[in-house]
TrEMBL record, chain A:
<dbReference type="InterPro" id="IPR001133">
    <property type="entry name" value="NADH_UbQ_OxRdtase_chain4L/K"/>
</dbReference>
<feature type="transmembrane region" description="Helical">
    <location>
        <begin position="29"/>
        <end position="48"/>
    </location>
</feature>
<dbReference type="GO" id="GO:0008137">
    <property type="term" value="F:NADH dehydrogenase (ubiquinone) activity"/>
</dbReference>
<keyword id="KW-1278">Translocase</keyword>
<protein>
    <recommendedName>
        <fullName>NADH-ubiquinone oxidoreductase chain 4L</fullName>
        <ecNumber>7.1.1.2</ecNumber>
    </recommendedName>
</protein>
<keyword id="KW-1133">Transmembrane helix</keyword>
<dbReference type="GO" id="GO:0098803">
    <property type="term" value="C:respiratory chain complex"/>
</dbReference>
<dbReference type="GO" id="GO:0005743">
    <property type="term" value="C:mitochondrial inner membrane"/>
</dbReference>
<keyword id="KW-0999">Mitochondrion inner membrane</keyword>
Automatic annotation (TrEMBL), chain B:
<dbReference type="Pfam" id="PF00499">
    <property type="entry name" value="Oxidored_q3"/>
</dbReference>
<keyword id="KW-1133">Transmembrane helix</keyword>
<feature type="transmembrane region" description="Helical">
    <location>
        <begin position="53"/>
        <end position="75"/>
    </location>
</feature>
<dbReference type="InterPro" id="IPR020726">
    <property type="entry name" value="Bcl2_BH2_motif_CS"/>
</dbReference>
<keyword id="KW-0813">Transport</keyword>
<keyword id="KW-0520">NAD</keyword>
<dbReference type="GO" id="GO:0008137">
    <property type="term" value="F:NADH dehydrogenase (ubiquinone) activity"/>
</dbReference>
<protein>
    <recommendedName>
        <fullName>NADH-ubiquinone oxidoreductase chain 6</fullName>
        <ecNumber>7.1.1.2</ecNumber>
    </recommendedName>
</protein>
<keyword id="KW-0496">Mitochondrion</keyword>
């Protein structure tokens, strides 16, 4: 595994761990999701640059960025809706389905 | 040059450690800004300067600005940074995890593995990745139409999610 490959693989794993082990705020989980998308963008761009003879796959990270922007917008809309109904974005307040 | 790539890759991993340790969202957004800046440096060192500019403009200048002012919804009187004990514990744990993975996977990393690589001999106006992205307009035309349609659809999704005057998906009153 080359150093760059190890770097963005561990960056992806770290973002995934931050998303799984979120603590108090909803927006911290959304920021870890953005970190995931960023590591994927860097991964796709580095693979295009280093491993391809032609650069035809340079449109892959662009499309990823467009769809990641859609996902970030939807996540922030959910954050706004949560803050409007529950008056905070702390995850302990999302307790409608308490057992 | 390989030292700069070394520093940039370290900055990438350490920045995401700072984001994943879940401090107050102000600090997490700052960590994400640092990670995207360092990621741009990594891309430039490997020859992808157009994609690096796209990352700066769209990701940093578009998406992270929106996240920065949305973090105002998470305002608290005493935001905890990376010095507070829960975030510090998570940071140390993540750094140890990355170190253990480095020990197991980092065999045979020599001096030349760290260096950047630029495939084009000499400097020209048309860089490789810029020419590659323009394929999106010629052969990948239908993917461009699909992407534009998805973006328009997301606009309506966001408007519908945040409306909630008398009805709406997430209105409790």
């Amino acid at each position: 595994m080359t150093p760059a490959h190890f770097a963005f693989s561990s960056a992806f794993m770290l973002g995934l761990a931050g998303l799984a082990f979120h603590r108090t705020h909803f927006i911290s989980a959304l920021l870890c999701l953005e970190g995931l998308m960023l590591s994927l963008f860097i991964a796709l761009s580095l693979w295009t640059e280093l491993f391809n003879l032609t650069h035809n796959s340079a449109s892959m990270p662009m499309i990823l960025l467009a769809f990641s922007a859609c996902e970030a917008g939807t996540g922030l809309a959910l954050l706004v809706a949560t803050t409007r109904t529950h008056s905070t974005n702390r995850l302990k307040n999302l307790n409608l389905l308490q057992c | 040059m390989s030292y700069m790539m070394y520093v940039l890759l370290f900055g990438l991993v350490l920045g995401l450690v700072a984001v994943a340790s879940n401090p107050s969202p102000y600090f997490a957004a700052l960590g994400l800004v640092v990670v995207s800046g360092v990621g741009c440096g990594v891309l430039v060192s490997s020859g992808g300067c157009f994609l690096s500019l796209i990352l700066f403009l769209i990701y940093l200048g578009g998406m992270l600005v929106v996240f920065a002012y949305s973090a105002a919804m998470a305002a608290e009187p005493y935001p905890e940074g990376w010095g507070s004990w829960p975030a510090l514990r998570l940071m140390v744990g993540y750094v140890l995890g990355v170190g253990v993975a480095w020990v197991f996977l980092g065999e045979g990393w020599y001096e030349e593995d760290w260096g950047g690589f630029d495939g084009l001999v000499g400097v020209s106006v048309l860089r490789g990745d810029m020419v590659g992205v323009s394929v999106m307009y010629s052969s990948g035309g239908w993917l461009l139409v699909a992407g534009g349609w998805v973006l328009l659809l997301t606009l309506f999704v966001v408007l519908e999610l945040t409306r909630g005057l008398a009805r709406g998906a997430l209105r409790a009153v």
